[in-house]
Amino acid sequence: MDIQSLIASALPFPDLYATGFADVEGLLSEPYREYQYALVFARKLDDVIIDAIKQGPNRTYLDHYRTINAELSQVINSVSASFDRANIKNQPIKPTWQDSELDASYFENLRTPFSHKMAATRAGLGWIGKTALLVTEKFGPRVRLATILVQEKLFETGVFIESCKCGDCTICVTKCPAQAANGREWNIQTDRDLFYDAFKCRDTARELSLKHMNEKVSLCGICAAVCPKGKKAPGTKWR
Ligand code: B12
User: Fold this and answer.
1) In a domain, 24, yes or no
2) Domain that holds residue 166
3) What pTM value is reported for the model?
4) pLDDT averaged per 10 residues, the chain (length 239)
5) Number of domains in the chain
6) Could you tell me the distance, in angstroms and rounded to a whole number, from the CA of residue 133 to the centre of ligand 1?
């Protein structure tokens, strides 16, 4: 089996995935510096569930988010095991980390050592929108991401996307309950903190989760729900 078929066979719902291969040379920090390429998986989220969070986070969304994290982890672990068998050195990076797995520097900066969104823009899957979400061509921002780092060039790499393509649209900025974004457009020179305040986002998401679900988790997603990109178009197969 070739590598492409191997990856396709690991996807439980291929129509609900966008995958891309990125050259990330020079962009990774420790402990990932030895890798040059990234295989990125974007898993579409359920439209009915995402549409419902326009009113704020709810338990169905939390369950969906956890289910998709589990599915993505299974996909990357399965592909990683196949790479191991083929002697392809690799490092799977799961969708997210629990607070208990993160160190003090994370809580000071809300930054982890690896950004799935960075790998995704380098793979050509999408750009960074005005509230700092990855907006994919295929599914808009309604995705969760996972990545496998490799040293070898297994596929043709995607064309880098280096600036925001949201145009004049500011709906996510306007509807953000935390007012976390200032409307400035992203490009690869624009640090996150220049256009989006992660602390405001997290703190408001925690308040909303507590209010709507009686659980203090960083769950909101209104920015993803209101984005016109990726909303279901008549006749599309996925939902
Ligand atoms: C920490 C974290 C948070 C923090 C901070 C968010 C933030 N935007 O930084 C808090 C708790 C606030 C948060 C909230 C949410 N999060 Co969060 N979070 C993460 C996590 C674990 C790390 C992100 C991180 O390190 N950020 C640091 C900055 C520097 O990196 P970045 O924002 O990821 O990307 C920047 C750079 O990479 C740069 N960049 C992009 N391309 C390139 C290319 C080059 C060459 C360069 C130099 C730079 C560059 O631009 C980006 C924006 O500035 C990731 C998982 C992961 N490991 O990636 C999920 C992740 C970013 N979160 C995600 C989601 C869905 C959410 C929420 C919607 C929560 C929810 N489920 O309700 C909200 C929405 C927040 C928002 N509007 O961004 C998704 C994003 C999906 C998407 N479509 O973008 C991720 C990728 C999880 C996943 N596996 O899918 N999150």
Assistant:
1) yes
2) 7-226
3) 0.96
4) 80 94 97 97 95 89 96 97 96 93 93 97 98 96 98 96 97 97 98 98 96 91 94 53
5) 1
6) 7
